[in-house]
Amino acid sequence: MDLELNILVGTQTGVAQLVAQEIELRLDGEGLRIKTRLMDDIDATVFKNGGVFLICTSTYGQGDVPDGARPFYDELLNSRPNLSNVRYGLIGLGDKGTHAATFCFAAKKFDKILGELGAVRIGEPLFNDSNTELPENEAAQWMEGWIVLCRTELAQTT
Ligand SMILES: Cc1cc2nc3c(=O)[nH]c(=O)nc-3n(C[C@H](O)[C@H](O)[C@H](O)COP(=O)(O)O)c2cc1C
Q1: Which of 67, 90, 98, 108 has the most ligand 1 atoms within 8 A of CB, as the residue to mutate?
Q2: pLDDT of residue 158
């Protein structure tokens, strides 16, 4: 059966969206049904039926989530839904050269709140440093391994 994957994108200038598009292209035909949404357009009800999610977000300001993702992030912090039926992976985009002290903080913030709300992360996060690796290439490569982990994990829990 196809694996349903929900990609939630937090972006300020479009790179994270490009990363999601590249992932969709590269994983086409691999038994996945991928639905990508901008965090700008969703609220916490996106999690209501549980499932597998990929959080793909950049960091702006000084370690902040992108402006458009702020309402979604704040809603999670404030309404604190139970996300114990959510499994997720994490891709953070950042710039270690210019923002070493807050490298990928937005992704780390999502990781923290999702964990607190009972969601379970699959695998280790990818934190892309745009100085050293093209985000879309590193992410698409990382996804190949992450999808294998997802299938293994889901096979054990269903
Ligand atoms: C004004 C500004 C602030 C930034 N702040 C951070 C930061 O605090 N931490 C970090 O890791 N990257 C930071 N970045 C780097 C971006 O996250 C990175 O360029 C990312 O690839 C942008 O992706 P996006 O187009 O999806 O928003 C910043 C970039 C800009 C232009």
Answers
A1: 98
A2: 59
Q: Which of 55, 75, 43, 58 is nearest to 11 (CA)?
A: 58
Q: Could you tell me the domains of the chain? A: 3-157 (3.40.50.360)
Amino acid type, 150: C
What integer best gives the mean pLDDT of the chain? 96
Ligand 1 center–CA 58 separation, angstroms: 6
Is 16 a pocket residue for ligand 1 (Cβ < 6 Å)? yes
Note the pLDDT of residue 95: 97
Q: From ligand 1's centre to the CA of 7, what distance in Å? A: 19
pTM of the predicted structure, to 2 decimals: 0.97
Q: CB-based contacts of 77: which residues, under 8 Å, 6+ apart?
A: 113
Mutation test residue for ligand 1: of 19, 36, 57, 60, the one with most atoms within 8 Å of CB: 60
Asked if residue 57 lies in contact with residue 92, where contact means CB atoms within 8 angstroms, the answer is yes
pLDDT surpassing 90 at residue 139: yes
